[in-house]
Amino acid sequence: AILLNEIKKNPKKPNLIVAPTSLIFNWLQEIERFTPGIKYLVHYGTRRTRDIRRLKKYPLILTTYGHVRRDIVLLKEIEFNYAILDESQNIKNPMSETSKAVRLLNARNRLALTGTPVENNTMDLWAQFAFINPGLLGDLNFFKETFMRPIEKEQNVQVASSLRRLIFPFILRRTKE
Fold it and tell me: In this predicted model, what pLDDT tens digit does every residue of 39-72 receive, in sequence order?
């Protein structure tokens, strides 16, 4: 719904959805079901376009994490309205090439969709926030010293509470209710 609204407001500015390969088909089904009028391009496979002008012609581009990593030199040149990461825990390792690549995307708005924002440690959270709101949690070293070490090594509940308050306004959580 948000993409349909944004595309109607600004059809010339492309939007990007990045998802695991296994979910691209799901996204296509949802687009056809709920917004069949949206023109889209699946940027995938060995025959995918490397022509930036062609990519910019589509209001919606779907691709995978692997393709963003491989094609970041091209994709970072496009000014996206929205860049949406589905299953954003895929960028939980901030030192991975995929995580570095998505942070280079040029997008006016950024969303990260995940059911598991923290799988292993608080670093997972930092990596996702470095994408959606760069600088909010400081650079990597600041985050490690200010939040990660006190929370994980010292079980400091005050620091954990402080981190929770800092990120709360940026999290929309769906509950069963």
Answer: 999 999 999 999 999 999 999 999 999 999 999 9
Between CA 82 and CA 67 the distance in angstroms is 17
User: How many Å apart are CA 32 and CA 35, to the nearest integer?
Assistant: 6
Provide the CB-side half-sphere exposure for 169 (13 A, CA): 5
Residues 6+ apart with CB under 8 A from 52: 74, 77, 78
Q: pTM of this prediction?
A: 0.91
77: phi then psi, degrees, rounded to nearest 5? -85, -10
* Dist. CA 164–CA 177, nearest whole Å: 22
CA atoms within 13 A on the CB side of 119: 13
